[in-house]
Every structure is written in structure tokens, then in C-alpha cells.
Amino acid sequence: MPKPIICLSDALRQFADAFRPCFSSRQFPYFVIVLWGLIECQERRTLSALVRTVGEVVSVAGVSRFLSRWQWSTTAVTGVWLRRFRDRLRVAVEAEHARQRAERPRRRGHPKATVVTGYLSLDDSVHVKPKGREMGGLGRHFATTQQQTVSGHCLFTGVYTLLGRRCPLAPQLYRQQAVCEREAIPFRSKIDLAVAAIEDFEPTADTRTHVLIDSWYHCRRVRRAAVARGFAVSGALKSNRHLRLTADDGTRTWPTCAEYAAALPDTAWSAVRWPSAAGGTVVYVHVLRSHIKKLGPSLLLLTRPTPDATLAQTRYWATSRLEADGPTLLATLAQRWQIEVLFEDYKDLLGSDHYQLMHAHAVVRFWTILAAVAYFLDEQRDQAQPTHAPMLNSRGEVRTAVQRQHQRNFLDWLEGQFRAGVSAETLARRLIA
Predict the structure, then answer these.
(1) Nearest 5°: phi and psi at 391?
(2) Closest C-alpha to 40, from 57, 52, 31
(3) Mean pLDDT over the full length of the chain
(4) What is the C-alpha separation between 337 and 86, in angstroms, rounded?
(5) Fewer CB near the last or first residue (10 Å), C or N of the chain?
(6) Cβ 3 vs Cβ 410: under 8 Å
(7) CA dist., res. 43 & res. 29, Å (int)
């Protein structure tokens, strides 16, 4: 049954109020409706479904105009939760530096500097739209989950992880060059989007940043953009990337990663535990400091499930952190899983691919509000963690807890309406219109 806005939880109301400067007085109620509808809706997140979720007098056309026509900035909306995250983490970063200083062993000379590292994971995800032929920004993209080229929109974004807390970045729409020519807009490749995300990113104060990418983005331009900001870079490599080997007599060869892995004996692999929430699994690694063509000096990491596994089971990684060892690098690479979890929650939990919007900028606006919901759920999870650690481990569990609070508020509101003499027929006309 739809619920009136008065039933919002205090946490969600305060969170929504933080975005009030981004909207006019006419626009703000629609922002709250979409924000609340994405949390409460139990069906596909179409505009009609979002409107049905909210017990207020609002039309689908009004929500459509809010997303597609009215003037408001997604950059301003994104900036609100990014600043909120940095402000919230500043105290935690200071506490972590203090903890490291307290546990630092006493020795002669200058003490070792304390380090707090945040991880910036970048990637893209295809939103399949087989029937959306007239949608703006629609292109043909390869969907990894379906292993084929499909018609849809490509969402590029990132997630910033610091001290176990997560913050999604601004969603962007990647358009292929043919689509840009058709719509008469400048073309920006995925590499352009990744470089811009690195250049524009503002980390939390007194922290270091480590950029995590997959093999598609692991190229010279991304590496240089990160190094120029003082960021480290780690990510997957394709098996055909060339590395430099120097023999004892000084001669150099440039085999591919696959050729190098094929020549390694079984004794060259060491067992290391790949970290995970379930305790981790044992993998076998080989580490080599080398020069990767078009990347420069890198620490190369090869992983496989067993020492005698086939080349098809071997994976290749590289990092700009030349001083790292195998276990440290594995722990770093495991942080990139947060971007995969984000995309899964976007689609399965919040319905980021359920929209039926004709304008490309309306799709980006829908994604932006959806990302704000994801940040809100992460924020609530972090605040509840000290007292509800076994209960609120995922965005889905937090969303369920928020829905329960809304349900309780709804029942309290109904009780107040009945006590005030409002008839059931009147309430039915309002809520089941």
C-alpha cells in the first residue's frame, strides 16, 4: 500500500534535506518521491511504479518532467554526498593515524610515517534495453554477463572505499562514437572517462589513493593520469601484454605474459590466501618486477588455482607499487570487488536498468538519484554497524530495515488518523487512488 511522505524515517528525511539547495521548491518534492520510491518499491522501478509507491498526489508526467526537462545539476547532487562522505570519514582517518602511531615500535631515527589508503575502483556495466529503439544514447555494447553484444546503455562509474566504508561516484553514460555522431555531441571514450574521473577525484584529507581497474582500462593514459596525482594503480592485464626480461649477459627479450607463464616451473609458484569475507581461498602466485610495454616499471603478479594449472586458468595483474609483495597485492586487488557489488546492487536491489526514459540526460539523472540511495544505505550500514553487526552487512539488509521503519511510521500515522476521526473510506480514497 502506498505511504504518504510524512512516514519517512528521520534518517531519510535528514538525508534528503541535505540536497535541498540543489533543487527549487517545486522540484524538491519530486526528488524525495524518486528517492523514497527507489527504497520502497517492490516491483520494477518504472516511473509508474515509483508513483504508485508514494501516497501523494503526483503524476507520472510530473516525475518525467522532473527527470527530463526541469533544470537541475547532477554534478551538484553528486557533490553533496561526496562532501558528506569526506566530512564523515575525516575523524575516522585521524583516529586511524593515531592508532598506527600508538602501535608504532620505538626506534632510533625518524619514525615511519603512518599511511591510510583509500581505493578508487573504476568500471562500466551494460544496461540491456532490447526494446528501447528510440531512447537517447542507446548503442551496441558487449555484455559480459550474456557474452554477446546487446542494445542498451553503458553506465560508467566508480566506488571509493576507505576504512571499510564505501562511497559511489557520479554515474556517467558512455556513448560510442557512432552514437555521438548521430546525436551531434563530442565523443569521449571509456579511457577518457576514466582519466577524467581520476583527474577530478578529491580524496579524503591525509590519505593515499590506490586506483583499481580491469584489463580494459589498464593502459598508459590511465597510469599517467594516476601517477600525476600521486595515486598508485593496480589492475588486471590481458595475457598478450609484453614484459621485458633481461638475461645475465644483458640481452633483452619481450615475451607475452602467457609465454612467460608457460615457461615457469611448478616450483616458481607460492601459496597465498586470496582474502574474502568467507575466509579466503588459497591461490598460487608468482611475482616479478619488470617493465610492461606501454605501462613502464611494474610489479607483475600471476595467479592460478594450482601450480600445475593450465594457461587458461592463469590470471595476470600489474601494479605501480614496486615494493609490494604477493599477499599485499592480493589484498589490494580484492578491494576492487566493491565495484562489482555496487553494480549488482544497482541492478538487482535498486533497479538501475528498469527505467523507461527517452532522453539520455534523464537516464543519467535517474542513475544519479539511485547512486544517492546507494550512498544512503551505505551510510546507514556504517552507523548501525557497532550495534547491529550481524544484521546489517549488505545494502539489501539495510534497505529492509529502513522499509520496516517506514512501515512502523505508517501504522502510527494510520492510528493517529483514526483517532482524529478520519474514516477508512477517506483514507482509502487518498491511498488507493
Answers:
(1) -95, -40
(2) 52
(3) 91
(4) 21
(5) C
(6) yes
(7) 22
CA 225/CA 286 separation, integer angstroms: 28
The Cα–Cα gap between 327 and 305 comes to 15
List the grid coordinates of 223.
597510469
- Tell me 359's DSSP state: S
Q: What is the CA radius of gyration of the chain?
A: 25
The reported pLDDT for the residue numbered 388 is 47
Quote the cell numbers at residue 9.
524515517
**Dihedral of the alpha carbons of 38, 42, 46, 50, in degrees to the nearest 10:** -60
**Is 56 strand, coil or helix?**
coil
Q: How far apart are CA 338 and CA 278, in angstroms?
A: 15
- pLDDT of amino acid 301: 95
The pLDDT value recorded for residue 332 is: 93
The pLDDT, as a whole number, for residue 413 is 86
pLDDT-derived band at 387 (thresholds 50, 70, 90) equals: low
Euclidean distance between the first and final Cα of the chain, in Å? 11
Residue 278, pLDDT score: 59
Specify whether the CB–CB gap between 221 and 101 falls below 8 A.
Answer: no
Task: Report, as an integer, the average pLDDT of 228-239.
Answer: 95
What cell was used for 407? Answer: 512501515
User: CA-CA distances (angstroms) from residue 231 to 234, 263, 319, 374?
Assistant: 10, 33, 11, 26
Number of C-alpha atoms within 13 angstroms, CB side, residue 380?
Answer: 27
Quote the DSSP letter at residue 106: P
Q: Is the pLDDT of residue 385 over 70?
A: no
Structure confidence by residue, pLDDT tens digits, 16-49? 999 999 999 999 999 999 999 999 998 888 999 8
Where in the chain are the domains?
A: 5-73+359-431, 232-330
